[in-house]
Amino acid sequence: GFTDHVALGNEEWNPWDADEKNELAASQQRYEANLKMIKYARSHLEQTSLRVQIWGKAAIGLYLWQHIFGGHLEPADVIAQWREGSQNAGKTYFSFLTGPSVVPGYFSVEAEHVVLVLNGREPAKIAYATQWLHYAQTLMETRKIQHVAVVLLGNEQCNNAWIQPYLKRNGGFVNLLFVTYDYAFVNEEDIFQWPLGVATYRNFPVVEPSWSMLHDQRSYLCNFLGTVYKNSSRETLIEILKQDGLDKLCWIAAREQWQPQETNESFKNYQDALLQSDLTLCPVGINTECYRIYEACSYGSLPVIEDVMTPGDCGNSSAYHSAPLQLLKTMGAPFIFIKNWKELPAILEKEKKMSLQEKIQRRKKLLEWYQNFKAWMRQKFINTLENSFLPSDKG
Question: What pTM value is reported for the model?
Fold first, then answer.
């Protein structure tokens, strides 16, 4: 980013007015001085910089790279076998690799510091993640790399015990762990909570806010498109909406079975629902945190979140007063949190009375918050890596 210094001085050069040779000599000197400055800056950059290679072996890697880092990937085709991108950030040069062709031992390791993005959702994924960890461990042992951090799509009930032995604090080699959901072991020292983000495995895009997204009247008060499990709070939600005829004011499309793969039409429908409604209802699933929260933020539709802990080993509310969704709450997410869907009719009554102007202000606040949230996560990620990987100046 030093090209702006290469301009040949600010004064306009007028061939009729100055002695041409003097001018050329002077501009040559300026050019050389600039060249020196660039060389110095580059060498200075190299002295202080880290090279970090991110191996994206889980879809949340795309949220990290494209949504949080605002990075690009070549080729753009989402089904390409191999995709890569790079950018400078802080004192660090980051490169990102992803795709089915990124296989242990079959690509060049071009940095001494590696971030592994892994899926630890279920046993089959864990077995695959473990292979990657063993590959990284071998590289550490043969001094090919110096540091390893892991970004982990954790288990929805926070059963992540399998990763613990790999952490440095437990005698392993992984310096840092960034993990999704309210994992009870998050300590802000070497284990950090990481946002679930949008469903990149369904190719949810990076959405650029538009004028109409902010200013247009939206056709629906709220939306819920999703699976309704038997005996779940989602059944209660649908019943409450039907009781008061509120389902007529909202875009509701409930299905009884979860579908992992979207059709183009169902995905288009879902995006339209987010864009066309002021509120997005977010009932709990296996975990309180879901992709829908972040997807709604992308389109300026305010998440209404069922704020209850789900069964499992995620941070219990008694010890963590802000769990669940500790990360979002700590960051001041401007959402509506409710404990029970019975609170919904009153919320929707209030919505009906809101002016478009008030809604525009709320959308602005939400979209700004989401931009800031991603920027903050990026900065925190970079700082954490630099503090851990760069040699400290403390002698």
Answer: 0.86
